[in-house]
Amino acid sequence: MDNANVGVSSAPDVAPPISQPIPFLDLKAQFTSIREEILRAVEGVFESQRFILGQEVKQFEEEVAAVLDVPYAVGCASGSDALYLALLAKEIGAGDEVITTPFTFGATAGAIARTGATPVFVDIRRDTFNIDTTLIEAAITNKTKVIIPVHLFGLAADMEPINKLAKQHNLVVVEDAAQAIGGTYQRRPLGGWGDFGCFSFFPSKNLGCAGDGGLVTTRDGSMADRLRLLRAHGSKHKYHYEIIGTNSRLDALQAAILRVKLKHLGRWQKARVEHAALYTRLFAAQRLDEFVVLPSTPAGFTHVFNQFSIRCADRDSLVTYLADRGIPTEIYYPEPLHLQPAFAYLGYRPGSMPQSEAACEEVLALPVYPELRPEDQERVVSTIAEFYRGDRY
Of all residues in the chain, what percent are helix, strand and coil, respectively (each to 5)? Predict the structure, then answer.
């Protein structure tokens, strides 16, 4: 972004008094709208006193599988565990390599490392923030076993070329759909394109529970059975262990909450898409192309906007300017995984993933939750315009 030209008017050196702050995410507003439904569902679980797996989890798995158009959905304790369980189901471990992106939450590569396998990073596309499919083949070796594309911020990775490469090289595809439930690629829901789809129900997600929760989808019945074994200590029958598993069960309370929220997911996602469209119109009216790049949605994709992430000039100063005026933002992500201390053992150096590193310097998420008011969006964009029209430019 070339920000060397114009300065139209001078922004104040001292921030004006803060008006009512805008929430970055307002879960209280969401709860208020479905309070009675949630409380009835939770009360039902307490009345039953069945808290571990059980009928609530089974029903949620069936209902969400129908929404995602997959035959099998297996609940688990978190989105992080969903990735880990998918890799364990395919017996990925020491000596194996798994290709993914460095521009993502730490759990993506962390799940790989937990199995003993080696994360192999491939850089992202500048326009979508998702893995650059043209760079994947060069990263494949005779040790490569899996590709984990991340559907970042609610936008699908380009699955057709990824699946083509996987077929050519006999690789497993694990979709990291933690931020993308309800998103589609070529009109088909995400989570059914790979061998596994992994979802998170962390409270801030488009479909969030009241704590941690996750899900793995698959079209393979034998893999679904294996996932159920793995999440419950490798046991079908009490004190009898068929394989070595772990404890990663979705709580009945969380499943009951998710069953209520699943009914509202379509409405909430429609609101997110409408908010994204309004942001696009507001930014266009302000003519800030020199300073701000908006999210891109390629043809054949839908974006469900778990985040509305822009690229912007002088990002860190803008964050401070907005915060001083009661406008919260978030940076997803300030540092790429290949340069994090936890992955230093892999030997990557600054400059090795230039697009991911550039994104970490420029990306900024704006409020986009379903209950966000249009006047608050107008305030966000007008304040950003004030920043770029100040004497600093």
Answer: 40, 15, 40
Say how far apart CA 29 and CA 367 lie, in whole Å.
Answer: 14
The pLDDT of residue 282: 98
> Residue 202 CA to chain centroid, in angstroms?
10
Q: Which two tokens stand for residue 81?
A: 């565990």
Other residues' Cβ atoms within 10 Å of the Cβ of residue 354: 12
CATH topology for 265-388 is: Aspartate Aminotransferase, domain 1 (3.90.1150)
Nearest partner of 258 among 26, 37, 36, judged by Cα: 37
| Residue 212 token pair | 């941690």
Q: Domain map of the chain by residue range?
A: 30-262, 265-388
Q: pLDDT digit string (tens) for 273-300?
A: 999 999 999 999 999 999 999 999 999 9
Fold designation for 30-262: Aspartate Aminotransferase; domain 2 (3.40.640)
Confidence of residue 9 (pLDDT cuts 50, 70, 90): very low
